[in-house]
Design goal:
Largest sheet: 3 strands, mixed
CATH class of the largest domain: Alpha Beta
Order of helices and strands: HEEEHEHEHEHHHHHHHHHHHH
Number of domains: 3
Strand order of the largest sheet: 2-1-3
CATH superfamily of the largest domain: P-loop containing nucleotide triphosphate hydrolases
Distance between the termini: 24 Å
Number of strands: 6
Helix content: 55-70%
Length: 483
Protein backbone atom coordinates (compact mmCIF):
# COMPACT_ATOMS: atom_id res chain seq x y z
CA UNK A 1 0.00 0.00 0.00
CA UNK A 2 1.01 3.62 -0.41
CA UNK A 3 0.08 7.03 -1.65
CA UNK A 4 -0.73 8.23 -5.12
CA UNK A 5 2.08 8.06 -7.65
CA UNK A 6 4.67 6.21 -5.54
CA UNK A 7 4.78 3.25 -7.97
CA UNK A 8 3.28 0.53 -5.76
CA UNK A 9 1.39 -1.10 -8.65
CA UNK A 10 4.62 -1.18 -10.68
CA UNK A 11 6.35 -2.79 -7.71
CA UNK A 12 3.66 -5.47 -7.42
CA UNK A 13 3.93 -6.21 -11.15
CA UNK A 14 7.67 -6.65 -10.73
CA UNK A 15 7.17 -8.97 -7.75
CA UNK A 16 4.58 -10.97 -9.72
CA UNK A 17 6.73 -11.12 -12.84
CA UNK A 18 3.84 -9.93 -14.99
CA UNK A 19 1.38 -7.07 -15.30
CA UNK A 20 -1.46 -7.75 -12.88
CA UNK A 21 -1.98 -4.21 -11.52
CA UNK A 22 -2.85 -1.25 -13.68
CA UNK A 23 -0.23 1.49 -13.92
CA UNK A 24 -0.29 4.84 -15.64
CA UNK A 25 -0.09 8.57 -15.34
CA UNK A 26 -3.72 9.00 -14.30
CA UNK A 27 -4.08 9.92 -10.60
CA UNK A 28 -5.30 8.00 -8.76
CA UNK A 29 -4.45 4.97 -10.84
CA UNK A 30 -5.83 2.29 -8.50
CA UNK A 31 -9.56 2.44 -7.92
CA UNK A 32 -10.02 -1.14 -6.69
CA UNK A 33 -8.32 -3.90 -4.73
CA UNK A 34 -6.24 -6.36 -6.76
CA UNK A 35 -6.07 -9.84 -5.21
CA UNK A 36 -3.17 -11.97 -6.51
CA UNK A 37 -2.70 -15.57 -5.32
CA UNK A 38 -1.61 -19.07 -6.36
CA UNK A 39 -4.12 -20.96 -8.46
CA UNK A 40 -4.34 -23.83 -5.93
CA UNK A 41 -5.04 -21.50 -3.02
CA UNK A 42 -8.68 -21.32 -1.98
CA UNK A 43 -9.48 -17.92 -0.54
CA UNK A 44 -11.16 -18.33 2.87
CA UNK A 45 -14.67 -17.08 3.39
CA UNK A 46 -14.51 -13.31 3.59
CA UNK A 47 -16.58 -11.26 6.03
CA UNK A 48 -19.83 -9.96 4.59
CA UNK A 49 -18.91 -6.32 5.14
CA UNK A 50 -15.86 -6.55 2.86
CA UNK A 51 -16.49 -4.99 -0.57
CA UNK A 52 -15.81 -8.17 -2.51
CA UNK A 53 -17.40 -6.65 -5.61
CA UNK A 54 -14.47 -4.20 -5.74
CA UNK A 55 -11.85 -6.96 -5.96
CA UNK A 56 -9.92 -7.66 -9.15
CA UNK A 57 -8.57 -11.24 -8.92
CA UNK A 58 -5.39 -12.57 -10.62
CA UNK A 59 -3.72 -16.01 -10.22
CA UNK A 60 -0.27 -17.45 -10.73
CA UNK A 61 1.33 -20.93 -10.74
CA UNK A 62 4.66 -20.16 -9.00
CA UNK A 63 4.83 -22.85 -6.29
CA UNK A 64 7.54 -20.93 -4.48
CA UNK A 65 5.04 -18.18 -3.69
CA UNK A 66 1.94 -20.25 -3.03
CA UNK A 67 1.80 -19.16 0.63
CA UNK A 68 1.58 -15.51 -0.33
CA UNK A 69 -1.67 -13.70 -1.10
CA UNK A 70 -1.09 -10.19 -2.41
CA UNK A 71 -3.44 -7.24 -2.04
CA UNK A 72 -2.70 -4.18 -4.11
CA UNK A 73 -4.57 -1.43 -2.26
CA UNK A 74 -6.12 1.70 -3.81
CA UNK A 75 -4.36 5.02 -3.42
CA UNK A 76 -5.61 5.87 0.07
CA UNK A 77 -4.46 9.50 -0.06
CA UNK A 78 -6.43 10.37 -3.19
CA UNK A 79 -9.32 12.81 -3.25
CA UNK A 80 -11.73 9.90 -3.76
CA UNK A 81 -13.21 8.96 -0.38
CA UNK A 82 -14.16 5.54 -1.75
CA UNK A 83 -10.50 4.56 -2.04
CA UNK A 84 -9.80 5.34 1.60
CA UNK A 85 -12.85 3.34 2.67
CA UNK A 86 -11.60 0.30 0.73
CA UNK A 87 -8.21 0.51 2.43
CA UNK A 88 -9.71 0.78 5.93
CA UNK A 89 -12.05 -2.15 5.31
CA UNK A 90 -9.26 -4.49 4.17
CA UNK A 91 -6.56 -3.52 6.68
CA UNK A 92 -7.70 -5.77 9.58
CA UNK A 93 -7.26 -8.87 7.36
CA UNK A 94 -3.63 -8.19 6.40
CA UNK A 95 -0.55 -9.72 8.10
CA UNK A 96 2.31 -7.85 6.39
CA UNK A 97 2.09 -4.32 5.06
CA UNK A 98 4.60 -3.30 2.41
CA UNK A 99 4.51 0.45 2.79
CA UNK A 100 5.66 2.07 -0.45
CA UNK A 101 6.86 5.68 -0.62
CA UNK A 102 8.84 7.73 -3.09
CA UNK A 103 11.52 10.40 -2.57
CA UNK A 104 8.93 13.06 -3.29
CA UNK A 105 6.08 11.51 -1.21
CA UNK A 106 7.68 9.95 1.90
CA UNK A 107 6.55 12.89 4.05
CA UNK A 108 2.94 12.72 2.93
CA UNK A 109 0.69 13.82 5.83
CA UNK A 110 -2.22 11.45 5.08
CA UNK A 111 0.11 8.48 4.83
CA UNK A 112 1.80 9.51 8.05
CA UNK A 113 -1.49 9.65 10.00
CA UNK A 114 -2.47 6.21 8.76
CA UNK A 115 0.96 4.85 9.71
CA UNK A 116 0.57 6.17 13.27
CA UNK A 117 -2.91 4.66 13.57
CA UNK A 118 -1.94 1.22 12.20
CA UNK A 119 1.63 0.98 13.56
CA UNK A 120 1.09 -1.83 16.08
CA UNK A 121 -1.34 -4.02 14.17
CA UNK A 122 0.85 -5.49 11.40
CA UNK A 123 4.34 -6.51 10.41
CA UNK A 124 5.91 -3.75 8.35
CA UNK A 125 8.24 -3.62 5.39
CA UNK A 126 9.13 -0.21 3.97
CA UNK A 127 10.05 0.39 0.34
CA UNK A 128 11.59 3.62 -0.86
CA UNK A 129 10.61 3.23 -4.50
CA UNK A 130 11.86 5.27 -7.46
CA UNK A 131 15.28 5.26 -5.80
CA UNK A 132 16.85 6.36 -9.05
CA UNK A 133 15.51 9.83 -8.17
CA UNK A 134 16.41 9.69 -4.47
CA UNK A 135 19.48 10.26 -2.32
CA UNK A 136 20.89 9.12 1.02
CA UNK A 137 19.70 12.24 2.87
CA UNK A 138 16.11 11.41 2.02
CA UNK A 139 16.63 7.83 3.18
CA UNK A 140 18.02 9.00 6.53
CA UNK A 141 15.18 11.50 6.93
CA UNK A 142 12.68 8.73 6.24
CA UNK A 143 14.32 6.55 8.92
CA UNK A 144 14.09 9.40 11.44
CA UNK A 145 10.44 9.85 10.62
CA UNK A 146 9.77 6.13 11.17
CA UNK A 147 11.68 6.31 14.43
CA UNK A 148 9.29 8.99 15.66
CA UNK A 149 6.43 6.62 14.90
CA UNK A 150 8.00 3.95 17.12
CA UNK A 151 10.00 1.90 14.58
CA UNK A 152 13.48 1.62 16.12
CA UNK A 153 15.09 -0.39 13.32
CA UNK A 154 12.76 -0.30 10.31
CA UNK A 155 13.41 -2.62 7.39
CA UNK A 156 13.67 -0.33 4.35
CA UNK A 157 14.37 -1.52 0.80
CA UNK A 158 15.39 0.83 -2.00
CA UNK A 159 13.84 -0.15 -5.35
CA UNK A 160 13.55 1.33 -8.80
CA UNK A 161 10.78 -0.20 -10.91
CA UNK A 162 11.62 1.23 -14.30
CA UNK A 163 12.20 -0.31 -17.68
CA UNK A 164 15.90 0.54 -17.39
CA UNK A 165 17.84 -1.86 -15.18
CA UNK A 166 18.95 -0.19 -11.94
CA UNK A 167 21.00 -1.41 -9.02
CA UNK A 168 18.58 -1.68 -6.11
CA UNK A 169 17.49 -3.98 -3.27
CA UNK A 170 14.59 -5.66 -5.03
CA UNK A 171 16.14 -9.11 -4.65
CA UNK A 172 16.54 -8.61 -0.89
CA UNK A 173 12.88 -7.53 -0.73
CA UNK A 174 11.79 -10.72 -2.48
CA UNK A 175 13.93 -12.81 -0.15
CA UNK A 176 12.45 -11.12 2.91
CA UNK A 177 8.89 -11.68 1.70
CA UNK A 178 9.55 -15.37 1.04
CA UNK A 179 11.10 -15.81 4.47
CA UNK A 180 8.10 -14.19 6.12
CA UNK A 181 5.80 -16.58 4.23
CA UNK A 182 7.20 -19.61 6.08
CA UNK A 183 4.60 -21.41 8.17
CA UNK A 184 5.98 -20.55 11.64
CA UNK A 185 6.32 -16.91 10.65
CA UNK A 186 2.76 -16.88 9.32
CA UNK A 187 1.52 -18.27 12.61
CA UNK A 188 3.47 -15.65 14.53
CA UNK A 189 2.16 -12.87 12.30
CA UNK A 190 -1.44 -13.99 12.66
CA UNK A 191 -1.25 -14.29 16.43
CA UNK A 192 0.55 -10.98 16.77
CA UNK A 193 -2.03 -9.31 14.54
CA UNK A 194 -4.83 -10.84 16.59
CA UNK A 195 -3.30 -9.68 19.86
CA UNK A 196 -2.76 -6.18 18.50
CA UNK A 197 -6.40 -6.03 17.47
CA UNK A 198 -7.40 -7.29 20.93
CA UNK A 199 -5.33 -4.55 22.53
CA UNK A 200 -6.91 -1.94 20.30
CA UNK A 201 -10.37 -3.32 21.07
CA UNK A 202 -9.61 -3.26 24.79
CA UNK A 203 -8.66 0.41 24.55
CA UNK A 204 -11.93 1.13 22.75
CA UNK A 205 -13.89 -0.77 25.42
CA UNK A 206 -12.14 1.07 28.24
CA UNK A 207 -12.77 4.40 26.55
CA UNK A 208 -16.40 3.43 26.12
CA UNK A 209 -16.64 2.55 29.82
CA UNK A 210 -15.33 6.02 30.66
CA UNK A 211 -17.95 7.52 28.34
CA UNK A 212 -20.67 5.68 30.28
CA UNK A 213 -19.60 7.30 33.55
CA UNK A 214 -18.88 5.85 36.98
CA UNK A 215 -21.37 3.46 38.54
CA UNK A 216 -21.65 5.54 41.73
CA UNK A 217 -22.69 8.52 39.62
CA UNK A 218 -25.43 6.44 38.00
CA UNK A 219 -26.60 5.41 41.48
CA UNK A 220 -26.79 9.10 42.43
CA UNK A 221 -29.31 9.86 39.69
CA UNK A 222 -32.27 9.26 42.02
CA UNK A 223 -31.14 11.75 44.67
CA UNK A 224 -30.25 14.22 41.92
CA UNK A 225 -33.75 13.91 40.49
CA UNK A 226 -35.42 14.30 43.90
CA UNK A 227 -33.52 17.53 44.45
CA UNK A 228 -34.64 18.84 41.07
CA UNK A 229 -38.20 17.52 41.48
CA UNK A 230 -38.74 19.31 44.79
CA UNK A 231 -38.04 22.63 43.09
CA UNK A 232 -40.11 21.81 40.00
CA UNK A 233 -43.09 20.37 41.95
CA UNK A 234 -43.17 23.40 44.26
CA UNK A 235 -43.20 25.74 41.28
CA UNK A 236 -45.96 23.73 39.58
CA UNK A 237 -48.09 23.66 42.75
CA UNK A 238 -47.86 27.44 43.02
CA UNK A 239 -48.83 27.87 39.40
CA UNK A 240 -51.82 25.51 39.78
CA UNK A 241 -53.63 27.76 42.32
CA UNK A 242 -55.53 29.79 39.74
CA UNK A 243 -56.51 27.01 37.26
CA UNK A 244 -57.58 24.73 40.12
CA UNK A 245 -60.00 27.42 41.33
CA UNK A 246 -61.42 27.76 37.82
CA UNK A 247 -61.83 24.00 37.52
CA UNK A 248 -63.51 23.79 40.93
CA UNK A 249 -66.08 26.36 39.75
CA UNK A 250 -66.73 24.26 36.67
CA UNK A 251 -67.24 21.09 38.70
CA UNK A 252 -69.55 22.94 41.10
CA UNK A 253 -71.77 24.10 38.23
CA UNK A 254 -71.90 20.68 36.55
CA UNK A 255 -71.63 18.35 39.52
CA UNK A 256 -74.90 16.56 38.77
CA UNK A 257 -73.91 15.78 35.17
CA UNK A 258 -70.36 14.75 36.06
CA UNK A 259 -71.33 12.45 38.93
CA UNK A 260 -74.68 11.22 37.74
CA UNK A 261 -73.89 10.47 34.09
CA UNK A 262 -70.30 11.47 33.19
CA UNK A 263 -70.28 9.44 29.98
CA UNK A 264 -73.05 11.54 28.40
CA UNK A 265 -72.01 14.89 29.79
CA UNK A 266 -71.57 17.31 26.91
CA UNK A 267 -70.35 20.26 28.93
CA UNK A 268 -66.79 21.14 27.85
CA UNK A 269 -64.14 21.71 30.49
CA UNK A 270 -63.31 25.42 30.44
CA UNK A 271 -60.06 25.15 32.44
CA UNK A 272 -57.08 22.82 32.35
CA UNK A 273 -54.69 22.35 35.25
CA UNK A 274 -51.83 21.10 33.06
CA UNK A 275 -51.62 23.85 30.48
CA UNK A 276 -48.77 25.05 28.25
CA UNK A 277 -47.17 26.88 31.17
CA UNK A 278 -47.10 23.73 33.31
CA UNK A 279 -45.79 21.64 30.43
CA UNK A 280 -43.00 24.14 29.78
CA UNK A 281 -41.98 24.21 33.47
CA UNK A 282 -41.98 20.41 33.64
CA UNK A 283 -39.83 20.13 30.51
CA UNK A 284 -37.46 22.73 31.96
CA UNK A 285 -37.12 20.61 35.10
CA UNK A 286 -36.35 17.49 33.06
CA UNK A 287 -33.80 19.37 30.95
CA UNK A 288 -32.05 20.74 34.02
CA UNK A 289 -31.91 17.26 35.51
CA UNK A 290 -30.46 15.79 32.30
CA UNK A 291 -27.88 18.59 32.19
CA UNK A 292 -26.88 17.92 35.81
CA UNK A 293 -26.60 14.19 35.06
CA UNK A 294 -24.35 14.99 32.10
CA UNK A 295 -22.10 17.04 34.40
CA UNK A 296 -21.69 13.90 36.51
CA UNK A 297 -20.38 12.10 33.43
CA UNK A 298 -23.55 10.10 32.69
CA UNK A 299 -24.48 10.11 28.97
CA UNK A 300 -27.46 12.37 28.43
CA UNK A 301 -28.94 10.63 25.39
CA UNK A 302 -30.16 7.43 27.15
CA UNK A 303 -31.80 9.57 29.86
CA UNK A 304 -33.50 11.70 27.20
CA UNK A 305 -34.84 8.62 25.42
CA UNK A 306 -36.04 7.06 28.68
CA UNK A 307 -37.89 10.19 29.86
CA UNK A 308 -39.14 11.41 26.48
CA UNK A 309 -42.52 9.55 26.65
CA UNK A 310 -43.23 11.19 30.01
CA UNK A 311 -43.05 14.67 28.48
CA UNK A 312 -46.17 13.87 26.45
CA UNK A 313 -47.75 11.68 29.13
CA UNK A 314 -47.59 14.09 32.07
CA UNK A 315 -50.63 16.15 30.99
CA UNK A 316 -52.77 13.02 30.63
CA UNK A 317 -51.65 11.74 34.05
CA UNK A 318 -52.62 15.01 35.71
CA UNK A 319 -55.92 15.24 33.84
CA UNK A 320 -56.86 11.67 34.77
CA UNK A 321 -55.90 11.92 38.45
CA UNK A 322 -57.57 15.30 39.09
CA UNK A 323 -60.73 14.34 37.21
CA UNK A 324 -61.06 11.03 39.06
CA UNK A 325 -60.38 12.58 42.47
CA UNK A 326 -62.92 15.38 41.83
CA UNK A 327 -65.65 12.90 40.85
CA UNK A 328 -64.92 10.74 43.89
CA UNK A 329 -65.09 13.81 46.13
CA UNK A 330 -68.38 14.97 44.62
CA UNK A 331 -69.87 11.50 44.98
CA UNK A 332 -68.98 11.48 48.71
CA UNK A 333 -68.82 15.15 49.84
CA UNK A 334 -67.46 16.17 53.22
CA UNK A 335 -65.69 14.02 55.79
CA UNK A 336 -67.03 10.93 57.52
CA UNK A 337 -68.37 12.93 60.50
CA UNK A 338 -70.28 15.29 58.22
CA UNK A 339 -71.67 12.43 56.19
CA UNK A 340 -72.80 10.64 59.39
CA UNK A 341 -74.53 13.76 60.75
CA UNK A 342 -76.27 14.39 57.44
CA UNK A 343 -77.50 10.82 57.34
CA UNK A 344 -78.96 11.16 60.85
CA UNK A 345 -80.60 14.47 59.95
CA UNK A 346 -82.20 12.97 56.85
CA UNK A 347 -83.61 10.20 58.99
CA UNK A 348 -84.76 12.75 61.59
CA UNK A 349 -86.36 14.86 58.85
CA UNK A 350 -88.78 12.00 58.33
CA UNK A 351 -89.09 10.49 61.78
CA UNK A 352 -89.53 13.67 63.89
CA UNK A 353 -92.51 15.10 61.95
CA UNK A 354 -94.17 11.66 61.95
CA UNK A 355 -93.57 11.32 65.67
CA UNK A 356 -95.08 14.77 66.32
CA UNK A 357 -98.11 13.99 64.22
CA UNK A 358 -98.47 10.65 65.97
CA UNK A 359 -98.32 12.27 69.41
CA UNK A 360 -100.93 14.89 68.52
CA UNK A 361 -103.20 12.23 67.04
CA UNK A 362 -102.79 10.09 70.15
CA UNK A 363 -103.77 12.99 72.38
CA UNK A 364 -106.88 13.64 70.33
CA UNK A 365 -107.99 10.01 70.34
CA UNK A 366 -107.37 9.39 74.03
CA UNK A 367 -109.08 12.63 75.04
CA UNK A 368 -112.06 11.88 72.90
CA UNK A 369 -112.33 8.37 74.33
CA UNK A 370 -112.17 9.49 77.95
CA UNK A 371 -114.70 12.26 77.47
CA UNK A 372 -117.10 9.82 75.83
CA UNK A 373 -116.93 7.44 78.77
CA UNK A 374 -117.43 10.19 81.32
CA UNK A 375 -120.25 11.78 79.37
CA UNK A 376 -118.89 15.26 79.58
CA UNK A 377 -118.07 17.74 76.84
CA UNK A 378 -114.36 17.72 75.88
CA UNK A 379 -112.53 21.00 76.38
CA UNK A 380 -109.07 19.77 75.32
CA UNK A 381 -109.60 20.68 71.64
CA UNK A 382 -109.13 24.29 72.34
CA UNK A 383 -107.02 26.92 70.61
CA UNK A 384 -104.00 26.37 72.83
CA UNK A 385 -103.74 22.69 71.95
CA UNK A 386 -104.13 23.39 68.26
CA UNK A 387 -101.39 26.04 68.31
CA UNK A 388 -99.02 23.96 70.39
CA UNK A 389 -99.44 20.79 68.34
CA UNK A 390 -99.04 22.73 65.07
CA UNK A 391 -95.87 24.36 66.32
CA UNK A 392 -94.52 21.02 67.47
CA UNK A 393 -95.12 19.39 64.09
CA UNK A 394 -93.64 22.38 62.21
CA UNK A 395 -90.56 22.50 64.38
CA UNK A 396 -89.99 18.74 64.08
CA UNK A 397 -89.82 19.18 60.31
CA UNK A 398 -88.15 22.59 59.98
CA UNK A 399 -85.33 21.92 62.44
CA UNK A 400 -83.80 18.95 60.51
CA UNK A 401 -84.47 20.75 57.22
CA UNK A 402 -82.54 23.87 58.19
CA UNK A 403 -79.77 21.83 59.82
CA UNK A 404 -79.38 19.84 56.58
CA UNK A 405 -79.07 23.09 54.66
CA UNK A 406 -76.48 24.46 57.01
CA UNK A 407 -74.42 21.26 57.34
CA UNK A 408 -74.47 20.45 53.59
CA UNK A 409 -70.82 20.65 52.33
CA UNK A 410 -70.02 23.25 49.67
CA UNK A 411 -69.88 21.68 46.21
CA UNK A 412 -67.07 24.01 45.18
CA UNK A 413 -65.04 23.30 48.31
CA UNK A 414 -65.64 19.59 47.86
CA UNK A 415 -64.48 19.77 44.24
CA UNK A 416 -61.51 21.90 45.30
CA UNK A 417 -60.41 19.36 47.89
CA UNK A 418 -60.81 16.56 45.37
CA UNK A 419 -58.75 18.45 42.78
CA UNK A 420 -56.03 19.15 45.32
CA UNK A 421 -55.90 15.49 46.25
CA UNK A 422 -55.78 14.56 42.56
CA UNK A 423 -53.02 17.11 42.04
CA UNK A 424 -50.95 15.47 44.78
CA UNK A 425 -51.60 12.02 43.35
CA UNK A 426 -50.73 13.15 39.82
CA UNK A 427 -47.43 14.72 40.86
CA UNK A 428 -46.62 11.57 42.86
CA UNK A 429 -47.34 9.38 39.82
CA UNK A 430 -45.14 11.54 37.58
CA UNK A 431 -42.36 11.30 40.17
CA UNK A 432 -42.81 7.51 40.38
CA UNK A 433 -42.60 7.12 36.60
CA UNK A 434 -39.41 9.17 36.45
CA UNK A 435 -37.97 7.02 39.23
CA UNK A 436 -38.90 3.88 37.31
CA UNK A 437 -37.16 5.27 34.24
CA UNK A 438 -34.06 6.01 36.31
CA UNK A 439 -34.10 2.47 37.69
CA UNK A 440 -34.12 1.17 34.12
CA UNK A 441 -31.20 3.45 33.27
CA UNK A 442 -29.22 2.27 36.31
CA UNK A 443 -29.84 -1.37 35.42
CA UNK A 444 -28.82 -0.80 31.80
CA UNK A 445 -25.77 1.19 32.91
CA UNK A 446 -24.66 -1.56 35.30
CA UNK A 447 -25.23 -4.25 32.68
CA UNK A 448 -23.28 -2.34 30.03
CA UNK A 449 -20.34 -1.74 32.36
CA UNK A 450 -20.32 -5.44 33.22
CA UNK A 451 -20.40 -6.45 29.55
CA UNK A 452 -17.60 -4.01 28.69
CA UNK A 453 -15.46 -5.36 31.55
CA UNK A 454 -16.17 -8.94 30.47
CA UNK A 455 -15.22 -8.20 26.85
CA UNK A 456 -12.07 -6.41 28.03
CA UNK A 457 -11.11 -9.49 30.08
CA UNK A 458 -11.43 -11.62 26.94
CA UNK A 459 -9.00 -9.26 25.23
CA UNK A 460 -6.47 -9.91 28.02
CA UNK A 461 -6.38 -13.63 27.23
CA UNK A 462 -3.07 -14.26 25.48
CA UNK A 463 -2.07 -17.37 23.60
CA UNK A 464 1.60 -18.39 23.75
CA UNK A 465 3.51 -17.09 20.73
CA UNK A 466 6.06 -19.23 18.89
CA UNK A 467 9.70 -18.53 19.63
CA UNK A 468 11.31 -15.98 17.34
CA UNK A 469 15.06 -15.90 16.78
CA UNK A 470 16.68 -12.75 18.14
CA UNK A 471 18.31 -11.71 14.86
CA UNK A 472 15.65 -13.03 12.48
CA UNK A 473 13.90 -10.91 9.89
CA UNK A 474 10.61 -11.41 11.68
CA UNK A 475 12.05 -9.91 14.84
CA UNK A 476 12.86 -6.70 13.00
CA UNK A 477 9.53 -6.27 11.24
CA UNK A 478 7.25 -7.38 14.06
CA UNK A 479 8.63 -7.00 17.55
CA UNK A 480 11.27 -4.29 17.63
CA UNK A 481 9.18 -1.47 16.26
CA UNK A 482 7.51 -0.89 19.64
CA UNK A 483 9.28 1.41 22.05
Amino acid sequence: MGGTGVGKSSLLNRLAGKAIAKTGVERPTSHEVTLYHHQRVVIPHLPEQLPVASVNTARHDDDGKQHIIWLDMPDFDSTEQHNKQLVLQWLPHIDVLIYVVSPERYRDEKAWRLLLAEGGRHAWLFVLNQWDRGDVAQLQDFKRQLGQAGFDDPVIFKTSCTDIAQADEFTELERMILSLAESHNIQQLQQSNLQARKNALKQVLQAQALELGAQQHAQALSSLWQSQWQTTAKLLAQGFNWPIQQLADYYARHAADLVGNPATSTQPVKAEIWDDWANARFNDGLDEFILAAGQLGIPALPIKHQLQPLRNKAANIMRTQTGLAARQALAMPGNWLQRGALKLLRIGEIILPLASIGWASYQVLTGYYQSSRQGVEAHYLGVDFAIHSTLLIALSWLLPFFMLKKLQPSIKNTALKGLQRGLTQGLAQIDAEVEQGLRNIREQHQQQLYLLAELASFCDAREPLPEVAEHSALKRVLLSHKK
